[in-house]
Amino acid sequence: MISTNRIFNCYKDELKYQIYSKTLLLIFIISISLAAINLYGLVSKAEGAYDVYVRTYNEFKDAGIDVEAMLKSPLNRDIKQTGSDRLTKVDNPVRFQFEEAGIASQLLKGPNIITNTLEWLDFVFFPIIFTLLGIHFVSYDYKYKTYKLKVIKAKWNKLFAGKLFALFTCTFFIFISTLIASYIIGLYFHSQVVNRIPLEQFSSLPQIDNNKLIIQLVFSLFICIFFALIGFLMGILFKSFILPTIIFLVFNLILPVLGKYDIRNMIAIISHEIFEFKGRFILFMPAYIPLYQSITLLVAIAILIIAASFLYLSRQGKYYN
Predict the structure, then answer these.
(1) Quick one: residue 110, left, alpha or beta (phi over 0 = left, psi -120 to 50 = alpha)?
(2) CA distance 223 to 229
(3) Where are the transmembrane segments (predicted)?
């Protein structure tokens, strides 16, 4: 009981610091701003797709072609994707632009807001945000020399557990609050789409099937926790904020994917199974490995990161050296 109470006290102290330091508020503002940029872009995407459809319709009509017959005719697509570039060849331009406008008009409707927010944040911004959060959770004790005060209250392993649980809590809070705020913003932007585009024209089109939302949420939360753990370990190893931040940014933003077992490639394998990327962000096509291998390896890496963090600190005999 005493051990549990000490962990809980460490946990509360970590949360209080993050709240008082305005770290959570800053990250929340950044996350919401990034999400809002994407949601506003989806409004522009819907308007642009509708304008292209209208122009295509009028061009073929002015050329004396029966566009109504084209709208009722089937559409054949030949899609080729190289990296993030997707090339689509079609045999019915009018029907194609009609369907594209219909899809774009649905991207801000209901649960699609959440899916498009996750697609936008999961693969570029969330990894950076939560890696930096993980680094910060460890590095501020080195910066402000507060570890000496903390070891007086509890042993290093209790502090380690409290800090780790606090990191998970903050990650979950930022993730959920970002999605809630994004959903509210998305509903407002959807009202703008309704006012600007006659959506009844597209009532004959099937609705976007969003039956994987729960899986998308679980996987996205895993991504956030996974990169928070990476940052946590990097903070322990480097005992600073700047150097591990630079190393991660170089790896994540500059270096290309380093093979099929690169964590970015394994994340992409899973992502293409549960996301369709119909919005503004299209994820690169990964080098193939079986889905179960990607899932197993990522979970194993997350466990190894926790174990490595624990073992590194345990060899020092106390919390931080």
Answers:
(1) left
(2) 10
(3) 24-43, 123-143, 164-189, 213-234, 241-259, 291-313
- pLDDT tens string for the chain (321 positions)? 557 888 888 899 889 888 888 889 999 999 999 999 999 999 999 999 999 999 999 999 998 889 889 988 888 877 776 655 667 788 889 999 999 999 999 999 999 999 999 999 999 999 999 999 999 998 887 776 666 666 566 677 888 888 999 999 999 999 999 999 999 999 999 999 999 899 888 988 888 878 899 999 999 999 999 999 999 999 989 988 999 999 999 999 999 999 999 999 999 999 999 999 999 998 999 999 999 999 999 999 999 999 999 988 777 645 444
Exposed, middle or buried, 47 (CB in 10 Å: 0-12/13-18/19+)? middle
> What is the pTM (predicted TM-score) of this model?
0.91
